[in-house]
Structure prediction request, 177 residues.
Amino acid sequence: MAVLPIRIFGDPVLRQQARGVSRVGGVHRRLAANMTETMRVAPGVGLAGPQVGVLERIFTWEVDGEHGTVINPVIVARSEAVIEDEEGCLSLPGLAYPVERAAEVKIEGLDELGRPVALEGEGLLARVFQHEIDHLDGVLFVDRLPEPLRREAMGRLTDLSLGLASPGPGVPAEETL
Ligand code: NI
Prediction:
């Protein structure tokens, strides 16, 4: 297994649409193992393909001692109830803002062996699923913030990427998706 470099805000790969995986193969098993290792070392609770420069629809997650990989994930149901909670991202280091997400979601996809998987998540796990699937569409959590919070976050990200600001206090691993 290998720890992969994580792409940081400003890298155009984070804004691209990832493509569906047409055939799950050995490369995906190795990628899933490397992404899981990278996520743990970071540390965070979710990691999506584009964050390691892979424009394929794949993400890994680890919450409450359970973990997995989902390929070609689709949200098939979401609760009307929403929860607002602090959220950070491995690609946006030092930044955390409250983000509103569906409280529960059901997703379907394939695991790293190409077997169908159906997962239900609530709370943090639901948040991870929604955050990682956003990554596959080039969407970052700051895009989900209401104005003027979004504008503030984008300004801070620009300052950080230009070296005009130093990252704030670390964001807890369980809020880093
Ligand atoms: Ni993220």
In short: The radius of gyration is 15 Å. The mean pLDDT is 95. The CA atoms of residues 73 and 133 lie 7 Å apart.
